[in-house]
Amino acid sequence: MPADQLSSTFHALADPTRRAILSSLTTGEKTVSDLAEPFDMSMPAITKHLKVLEKAKLIERSKQAQYRPCRLHPEPLKDIDEWMEQYRKFFEASFNRLDDYLKEIQTKKEE
Fold this sequence. Notes:
Elements: H1 3-13, H2 16-25, H3 32-36, H4 43-55, E1 59-61, E2 70-72, H5 75-110
Antiparallel strand pairs: 1-2
Helix pairs in contact: 1-4, 1-5, 2-4
């Protein structure tokens, strides 16, 4: 995954409104009006958020006459998960070493 696509995905996820929109789309396709409903903001503001999500390839919008449904496109999220896996492995190894050390200290105290 190119670094600029990863940056674009992280940028899109940095905003709580966009994360809420993505969360809403996990239950299925929705119209822009449906997505805007829970927010106290203008339709142009919602549209700007949708454009950021679309640019990051996190959502897809299609045209069906006047109906413009949005749907989640999870591929960039999978790419982030794969990128983060290296850090998960690092922290798991660190916690395992810490656990071993604490067990060693406890054993020495019991002796």
